[in-house]
């Protein structure tokens, strides 16, 4: 890796950069800010930069030695070219462009400082604006080495080449003054430039444009010494009358204000050869005016054609330039488009190849820029932020020149904006529209439907399950709290919906309850005779809005109340109760019937549990209970209910506690409509829940419960009513809590047994059916064979 | 994916013709040429029946055993012809229509270019790009 071969250009460039970064002049560059800024300016993702750092060995050494630095620079160039970072590619990649670093406005400053050690540069420093670190005025050669700021790294890079050149060539210290001086090393492009110039561009436009192009071109190679000189030398006037104006411009730039522009140009050349400098732009604007006095107007295609034909470029290339620059494809050129086209023409005439796509800096702005016509005054201008790449807008807070640069920054900002607008131009916009199609309302989540995790709810659901037998498979669904369920709920019968809406505060529970309501209702219908009370659930009209909407739990309490009360009240109420969410029973279910109906929507388990609890715990417990207390009630209840609930549980559950619970919830719900049966089921469910054990993971058990409920639904339907009865008995029995644990285990085991039995039964059934299927298939095959045999004869 | 795309001027000479290079280009040129007759036939037929209104998309001009030829004519009597491989059965009518639409759009862009003289061969890179995108990607 250490054996790095660099071309002369690279060598020079890298050495300049190294010198720039080598602030301490120790011949080894620590990972100081400048180096990092330099790397950052390379516009590579940070991981790439890290990789580069590692590859070049700086991490190993802890600092950048000269060789490491060179390697890093070469890797940056490789990365910028899009090639994978490999050590082998260091020497194998040929014709690698020089690494490019984003130029900040500071670069203008830096360059300026490097070039001009006069007060003008001082004035320009502040004007640079983007520099994070204000550069002390009056820097001369020193400035070349002293980085004004981290952001001016690129500037420094530029400076570096200039510095040595300036130092080495004293006569060029004031290149500005003597534009005619030829630099010792002129980049080939410049030579070509001069050739072109001398080619006899009598067209003034061309000359000026060429000079502009010279500048850009100058930026491009960025070889070491003589860049600044080269620029000037390239400016060395072509033998044309326009030279004076051209020189005057250069002198002007030298003078003060415009120097910054130049610096900017130079700096910008680092990152973007297509950037239009202020002078160029001004020139273009003037030319635009000759064709179209209104700067906001359009140049028709024919006029533009004539104009650009004068440049004597081949029609094919002009056609391509037009394609690139007519951004809105309207056959006419706006000011921006015209400038872009002109710039491309200039570039082409100076030997640049036309790009395949319009460079970003040439993208026409969608917003009209009034200040495009305002050339920043020499006094302190600054950064021509034509390129959105420039960081300028952010970094010129303190610089007084900022104000002046502001219009430019605005321009750039607008360019930024417009550019983005451009990106969403007509073609893409349409595509966008199609993509923006609103999400499928069916999939739209109405609102999150969290599953109620309160154990009590689960208990309630269990109890419901038990009560309602296998009819209800849905209870778990609400617990799942899927948003789609919510949407499904909307499809529910109005009663259900209404109930859901009534859920106190719990949109979620309401969804649950509504879901559960739906299902139990349907199941109940299916049961028909099985649970007459369940049928009643379907019957009742939408319950009145629950009063307790204030707090969620209250609904459960209400349910409790309703359950408690209701064994008597009759079935319609219990039916409503059937679906209340399994929220721990409220301390004071003040209203029974109302909440019942309302709560129905709530998670089924809770109300069921609540009601059950109320039933079991009796009113005295209810008032005292906070929501959580209900849990214990459930437990107690469950414990007490376990013995009775076990048989039901066995019927319901197929596998494990979870399913038991879910089953309990299912039947529980269904049973709820049965009134006392509901209570029983809830109790059983509750107990099942308890038995199933930990209330901790309520949602999961609930879900499984639901599933199992589904599976067991056909079976449970028959079992439901039975369970309800069974549950009712134990329900009224007792309230002890401590026994719950032991009962839980037994219940679990019982349910396991039951599940296994069901399993075997189903397995047997399955095998029988399989056998039948096989027989049928064989029959069918034989029949088909017969048919085939008979067919040929049919023709005869 | 088209195998050959051609743009024929009003005077029935090609403004742009490009085929998948791996195959015998001359064959495609000939196919396109012969398809012009069918295009004329369709254009005249449609014109008479509907009158002023005319469908730009002509549809399948004629199929051969190897490929199918689709046609499209603009209001300025510039014809687009797309030759599609028959084995490519997945191409539906809609896709062909969209291909023609894209062609038409880029042709319009070419026309908007003041440096393009109508009747010149189309040398626009953008147009080339669009066409390449539609051609069969056979290396």
UniProtKB/TrEMBL annotation, chain B:
GO terms for cellular component: perinuclear region of cytoplasm. This is Trafficking protein particle complex subunit 2-like protein. Belongs to the TRAPP small subunits family. Sedlin subfamily. The lineage of its organism: Eukaryota, Metazoa, Chordata, Craniata, Vertebrata. The keyword Cell cycle does not apply. It holds the Pfam family Sedlin_N. InterPro entries: Longin-like_dom_sf, Sedlin, TRAPPC2L. It comes from Cyprinodon variegatus. It is found in: Cytoplasm, Perinuclear region. The keyword Kinase does not apply. GO terms for biological process: endoplasmic reticulum to Golgi vesicle-mediated transport. It comes from the Eukaryota. Keywords: ER-Golgi transport, Transport.
């Amino acid at each position: 890796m250490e054996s790095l071969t660099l071309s002369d250009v690279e060598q020079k460039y890298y050495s300049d950069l190294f010198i720039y970064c080598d602030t301490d002049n120790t011949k080894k560059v620590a990972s100081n800010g400048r180096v990092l800024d330099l790397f950052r300016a390379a516009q590579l993702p940070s991981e790439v930069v890290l990789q580069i750092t590692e590859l070049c060995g700086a991490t190993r050494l802890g600092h950048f030695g000269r060789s490491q630095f060179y390697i890093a620079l070469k890797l940056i160039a490789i990365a910028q070219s899009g090639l994978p970072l490999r050590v082998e590619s260091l020497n194998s990649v040929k014709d690698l462009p020089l690494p490019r670093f984003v130029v900040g406005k500071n670069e203008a400053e830096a360059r300026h400082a490097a070039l001009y050690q006069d007060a003008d540069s001082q004035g320009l420093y502040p004007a640079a604006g983007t520099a994070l670190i204000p550069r002390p005025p009056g820097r001369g050669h020193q400035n070349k080495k002293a980085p004004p700021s981290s952001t001016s790294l690129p500037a420094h890079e530029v400076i570096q080449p200039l510095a040595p050149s300036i130092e080495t060539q004293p006569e060029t210290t004031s290149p500005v003054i003597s534009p005619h001086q030829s630099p010792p090393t002129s980049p080939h492009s410049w030579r070509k430039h001069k050739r072109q110039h001398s080619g006899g561009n009598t067209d003034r436009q061309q000359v000026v444009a060429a000079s502009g192009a010279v500048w850009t071109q100058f930026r491009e190679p960025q070889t070491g010494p003589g860049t600044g000189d080269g620029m000037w030398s390239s400016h060395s006037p072509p033998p044309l009358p326009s030279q004076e104006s051209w020189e005057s411009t250069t002198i002007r730039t030298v003078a003060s204000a415009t120097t910054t522009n130049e610096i900017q140009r130079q700096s910008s050349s680092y990152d973007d050869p297509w950037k239009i400098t202020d002078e160029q732009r001004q020139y273009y604007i003037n030319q635009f005016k000759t064709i179209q006095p209104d700067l906001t107007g359009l140049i028709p295609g024919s006029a533009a054609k004539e104009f650009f034909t004068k440049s004597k470029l081949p029609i094919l290339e002009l056609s391509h330039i037009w394609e690139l620059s007519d951004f809105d494809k309207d056959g006419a050129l706006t000011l921006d488009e015209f400038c872009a086209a002109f710039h491309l023409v200039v570039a082409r005439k100076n030997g640049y190849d036309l790009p395949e796509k319009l460079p970003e800096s040439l993208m026409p702005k969608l917003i009209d820029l009034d200040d495009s016509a305002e050339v920043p005054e020499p006094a302190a201008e600054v950064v021509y932020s034509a390129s959105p790449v420039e960081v300028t807008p952010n970094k010129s807070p303190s610089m007084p020149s900022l104000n002046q640069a502001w219009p430019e920054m605005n321009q750039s900002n607008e360019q930024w904006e417009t550019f983005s607008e451009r990106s969403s131009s007509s073609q893409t916009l349409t595509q966008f529209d199609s993509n923006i199609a609103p999400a499928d309302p069916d999939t739209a989540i109405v609102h999150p439907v969290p599953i109620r995790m309160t154990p009590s709810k689960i208990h309630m659901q269990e109890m419901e399950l038990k009560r309602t037998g296998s009819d209800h498979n849905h209870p778990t669904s609400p617990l799942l709290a899927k948003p789609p369920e919510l949407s499904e709920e909307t499809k529910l019968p109005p009663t259900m919906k209404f109930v859901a809406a009534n859920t106190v505060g719990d949109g979620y529970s309401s969804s649950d309850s509504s879901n559960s309501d739906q299902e139990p209702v349907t199941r109940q219908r299916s049961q028909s005779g099985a649970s007459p009370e369940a049928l009643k659930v379907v019957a009742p009209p939408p319950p009145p809005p629950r009063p307790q909407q204030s707090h969620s739990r209250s609904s459960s309490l209400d349910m409790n109340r309703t359950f408690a009360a209701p064994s008597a009240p009759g079935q319609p109420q219990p039916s409503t109760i059937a679906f209340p969410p399994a929220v721990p029973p409220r301390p004071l279910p003040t209203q029974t019937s109302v909440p019942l109906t309302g709560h129905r929507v709530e998670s089924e388990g809770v109300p069921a549990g609540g009601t059950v609890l109320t039933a079991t715990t009796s009113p005295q417990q209810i008032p005292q209970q906070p929501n959580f207390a209900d849990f214990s009630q459930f437990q107690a209840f469950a414990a007490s209910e376990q013995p009775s609930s076990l048989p039901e549980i066995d019927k319901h559950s197929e596998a494990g506690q979870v399913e038991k619970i879910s089953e309990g919830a299912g039947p529980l719900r269904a049973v709820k409509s049965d009134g006392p049966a509901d209570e029983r089921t809830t109790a059983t469910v509750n107990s099942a829940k308890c038995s199933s054990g930990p209330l901790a993971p309520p949602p999961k058990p609930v879900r499984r419960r639901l599933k199992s409920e589904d599976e067991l639904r056909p079976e449970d339907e028959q079992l439901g009513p039975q369970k309800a009865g069974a549950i009712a008995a134990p329900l009224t029995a007792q309230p002890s809590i401590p026994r719950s644990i032991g009962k839980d285990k037994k219940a679990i085991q019982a349910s396991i047994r039951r599940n296994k039995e069901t399993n075997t039964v189903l397995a047997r059934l399955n095998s029988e059916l399989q056998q039948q299927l096989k027989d049928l298939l064989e029959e069918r095959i034989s029949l088909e064979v017969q048919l085939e045999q008979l067919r040929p004869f049919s023709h005869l | 994916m088209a195998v050959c795309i051609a743009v024929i001027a009003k005077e029935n000479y090609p403004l742009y013709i490009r085929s998948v290079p791996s195959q015998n280009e001359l064959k495609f040129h000939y196919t396109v040429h012969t398809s012009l007759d069918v295009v004329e036939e369709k254009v005249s037929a449609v014109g008479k029946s509907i009158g002023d209104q005319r469908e730009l998309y002509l549809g399948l001009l004629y199929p051969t055993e190897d490929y199918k030829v689709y046609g499209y004519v603009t209001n300025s009597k510039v014809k687009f012809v797309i030759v599609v491989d028959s084995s490519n059965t997945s191409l539906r009518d809609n896709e062909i229509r969209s291909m023609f639409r894209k062609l038409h759009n880029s042709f319009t862009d070419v026309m908007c270019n003041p440096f393009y003289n109508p009747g010149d061969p189309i040398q626009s890179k953008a147009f080339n790009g669009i066409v390449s995108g539609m051609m069969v990607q056979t290396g």
